[in-house]
Write a structure and sequence with these properties.
single chain, alpha/beta, TIM Barrel, three-stranded parallel β-sheet, 10 strands, binds 2-acetamido-2-deoxy-beta-D-glucopyranose
Length: 357
């Protein structure tokens, strides 16, 4: 490629480099499992299950929008800041590595450009093709250093051309986790729709379970527990991994998971500790799409407030639903002091996302 062409390709991106110094004077929420996508990616987007009262057409428009209906609802309901990321499954459903890597760069460039004029209200998690861990690490570095992105959001496993799927718990991915630690940014692990092979084997007798009600959490919790048990956090103790939907069911079942894992392999597993302990050092959860007050109460007892942050899951969930829960229902339930409520709504997120840096 000639130098002129390279400059032409790079130039439109350069003006969008931005910096944000968060002053934390607000009291509103920070939400960061919030989906957005490009029209070109609609066939790589779960967009057939809008929330009640929203048509598929409105839902698609909500996914593409940033500055209109999204921002006006944030203003109306008290969301101070949203971190946007590519709606699931996005790049993780593109089997061809070259196509996936190019599309990831296109998505990241477009998102950086779209939010560049309002970085006090919007931030971004980068999207990465995960076929080649070194390429993923380089794209993470580019988006963090050039665009001020706040981390990465990966939609569970990566599809490949030969029908296998890739999980990020193997030693090949150490180069990626090493970069995550070096850049000191969190990684959000988000669910995705199942590949057809998995649907045929696991869900054909109850196809309605293939999705957010069950399938999402089942496959993603396997991936999360794979990352724990394969020792990623032992090799990279500073990795911050965030999972949504109140922990993809894991914190609710820690006692049994730990007890049974101990028996699994007589000589021990690749991990050095137990799953409970990684929730004190590496794992965080958000409330996205799971505003269940009794469950939150249990998680406050088991993993503790410091590991739990608010998020919504817009536009799959209405902004108002999340805001009503946290602003009204949750204080009424009397399980958090006002100071603790602020931690849940924003203060832990400011630390974990590095908004105060
Ligand atoms: C803090 O940031 C907000 C934007 O989120 C801005 O309106 C406000 O003026 C800032 N306050 C200070 C003291 O810089
Ligand atoms: C999505 O898939 C449909 C059906 O195959 C096709 O008609 C449409 O052009 C695709 N849209 C994009 C943006 O690729
Ligand atoms: C940022 O740009 C978008 C698209 O042009 C526009 O709709 C929006 O109002 C702008 N926001 C600010 C704060 O300038
Ligand atoms: C399928 O492709 C992946 C890389 O994309 C490779 O690691 C794996 O060995 C391949 N598996 C088979 C059965 O060809
Ligand atoms: C998990 O490990 C911690 C120490 O890190 C220990 O206190 C706890 O008893 C262990 N739990 C189980 C169920 O093994």
């Amino acid at each position: 490629m000639g130098l002129t062409l390279q400059i032409l390709l790079v130039l439109p991106v350069l003006p969008f480099i931005f910096a944000r110094k968060w002053n934390n004077t607000g009291k509103g929420t920070i939400a960061f499992e919030e989906a957005w996508t490009l029209p070109d990616l609609i066939n790589f987007t779960d967009h057939k299950s809008p929330p009640p009262g929203t048509t598929v057409e409105q839902f698609e428009a909500n996914l593409f929008d940033i500055h209109n209906q999204r921002l006006s609802q944030m203003d109306a309901t008290g969301v101070d800041f949203m971190v946007l990321s590519c709606a699931t499954p996005c790049i993780q459903a593109i089997p061809d590595p070259t196509t996936a890597e190019e599309m990831a760069r296109t998505v990241n460039n477009a998102l950086a450009a779209s939010i560049s004029n309002n970085t006090f209200r919007f931030g971004a998690f980068g999207t990465m093709a995960m076929h080649n861990p070194a390429v993923a690490a380089a794209e993470l570095e580019r988006t963090v250093k050039e665009f001020g992105f706040l981390g990465a959001l990966l939609n569970d496993y990566q599809q490949t051309p030969n029908g296998t799927v890739l999980f990020y718990d193997q030693p090949e991915y150490d180069v990626f986790w090493e970069k995550v630690v070096e850049l000191d940014v969190p990684v959000y692990l988000h669910p995705r729709s199942a590949v057809p092979e998995l649907v045929a084997l696991q869900f054909q007798q109850a196809i309605w379970l293939n999705g957010p009600s069950q399938g999402y959490a089942v496959t993603l919790s396997n991936h999360i527990l794979g990352i724990c048990t394969n020792g990623v956090f032992d090799r990279f103790p500073k990795v911050k991994l965030i999972v949504g939907h109140l922990g993809e069911r894991i914190p609710s079942d820690l006692a049994r998971i730990d007890e049974q894992l101990l028996k699994e392999i007589p000589n021990g597993l690749p991990m050095k500790r137990n799953i409970t302990s990684y929730w004190q050092t590496n794992l965080f959860e958000t409330t996205s799409g799971n505003f269940a007050t009794p469950l939150l109460k249990f998680h406050l007892e088991t993993i503790g407030l410091n590991r739990i942050m608010y998020s919504i899951d817009y536009p799959y969930i209405n902004i108002q639903e999340g805001q009503t829960w946290i602003d009204e229902l949750l204080p009424q339930a009397g399980i958090l002091s006002q100071a603790d409520l602020l931690k849940l709504k924003r203060e832990t997120a400011i630390e974990v996302l590095g908004l105060n840096k």
